[in-house]
UniProtKB/TrEMBL annotation:
Protein family membership: Belongs to the GPN-loop GTPase family.
CDD domains, per the entry: GPN2
The protein's assembly and partners: Binds to RNA polymerase II (RNAPII).
GO CC aspect terms: cytoplasm
Annotated keywords: GTP-binding, Hydrolase, Nucleotide-binding
Region (Disordered): 325-345
The protein's name in its UniProt record: GPN-loop GTPase 2
InterPro entries xref list: Gpn, Gpn2, P-loop_NTPase
UniProt organism field: Coemansia erecta
Functional description taken from the UniProt entry: Small GTPase required for proper localization of RNA polymerase II and III (RNAPII and RNAPIII). May act at an RNAP assembly step prior to nuclear import.
């Protein structure tokens, strides 16, 4: 019963870098892992891939044979793979007892409209693969309400389309502090709490119409009604961040339950688990992410005191959690070996 995960996300979100980093991390943990390249346009493959779609079809071949552009050629290649699934299954069968990481293309339509990737996953599942989906989106989307809403919609569409255990992750979280201050604490973006606060920022600067505000409200309600989207955080060079994400993945695809063999490191990882909220608070502290001061208009967005919590003014139990989090963070950051030893080469 092979386990693994597929790695998807918009172009440049860090999929190939992730596959390389996670491959090294799992190998260091002693988990026999192979990376499968399903992206025929993968130019900078940093890992040694065990199975490569380019051995079946290349993007250039598809474009030349049918006079297609790069996007059409990519869709053709994936549909060609869908029709030749036995080729993929035979190649995968050559890697017994391995954990599989699938590096996928960045074309968003493959996860929102086209059925090919979905059918490929179904076929793998029928062949007893236990898979989860890791959807990477650039953390810079958090810096503007409108961009964050678009990423929420994309994540929701992808989740409902693929219908498989799914983890969304804000990638390159280490770069977020270079992109200015956030409107809210990071945990607001990871937990996708009350979108009324975001609604206010969406409407801000668009005084033109009630229709625009109604559209924004309807989109926020849609996302809240499904109540499915949340985010983990990821900096691929930080082993704490990779370990936290791996715990989520192992729970999602069942590796933690299905691979109960002696020395299964995922049991140890899970025993050491932190929840998503604490992880977001750790990430906020670790990467020095700043939050803007609240405006008067923000206070109008809610009658309650919750907005203070979203901006870091905590009380009671939150204060306690905050102190614990900071202590935990201080322990890790003052460790002399942390800066180099924690980096995956
Ligand atoms: N700082 C930082 N940079 C990252 C991280 N992950 C990826 N990158 C950088 O992001 C850029 C794009 O990464 P890729 O791995 O090529 O992205 P991709 O999603 O595979 O791109 P496509 O295959 O073209 O869709 C590279 O320059 C990476 O070095 C991260 O966690 N932190
Ligand atoms: Mg790539």
């Amino acid at each position: 019963m092979p386990f693994g995960h597929i790695v998807i996300g918009p172009p440049g979100s860090g999929k190939t870098t992730y596959c390389n980093g996670m491959h090294q991390f799992l190998s260091a943990l002693g988990r026999k892992t192979v990376v499968v390249n399903l992206d025929p346009a993968n130019e900078s493959m940093q890992y040694e891939c065990a199975v490569n779609i380019e051995d079946l079809i290349t993007l250039d071949d598809a474009m030349d044979a049918y006079q297609l552009g790069p996007n059409g050629g990519m869709v053709y290649c994936i549909e060609y793979l869908e029709k030749n699934m036995q080729w993929l299954l035979d190649r995968l069968a050559e890697h017994e007892d391995c954990y599989f990481i699938f590096d996928c293309p960045g074309q968003v339509e493959l996860y929102t409209h086209n059925q090919a990737i979905k059918n490929i996953v179904r076929r793998l599942e029928k062949s007893d693969f236990r898979l989860a989906c890791v959807h990477l989106v650039d953390a810079s989307y958090c810096t503007e309400a409108s961009r964050f809403i678009s990423v929420l919609l994309l994540s929701l569409t992808t989740m409902t389309m693929l219908e498989m255990p799914h983890i969304n992750a804000l990638s390159k979280i280490d770069l977020l502090n270079q992109m200015g201050q956030l409107d809210f604490n990071l945990e607001y973006y990871t937990t996708v709490m009350d979108l009324d606060y975001l609604l206010h920022h969406l409407n801000n600067g668009h005084e033109t119409g009630e229709k625009f505000a109604s559209l924004n409200r309807a989109i926020c309600e849609l996302i809240e009604d499904f109540s499915m989207v949340g985010f983990s955080t990821l900096c691929i060079t930080d082993k704490h961040s990779v370990a936290a994400l791996l715990k989520e993945i192992d729970k999602a695809n069942g590796y933690i339950f299905g691979a109960l063999t002696e020395g299964n490191e995922s049991i140890l990882l899970a025993a050491n688990a932190t929840d998503m909220l604490t992880e977001a608070r750790n990430a906020q502290a670790r990467y020095g992410l700043l939050t803007k001061a609240p405006t008067d208009a923000d206070a109008d967005a809610s009658e309650s005191d919750d907005v203070g919590v979203l901006r870091g003014k905590k009380s009671g139990i939150d204060n306690l959690v905050e102190r614990l989090t900071i202590k935990e963070h201080a322990q890790t950051t003052t460790s002399p070996s942390r800066s180099k030893a924690d980096e995956i080469p």
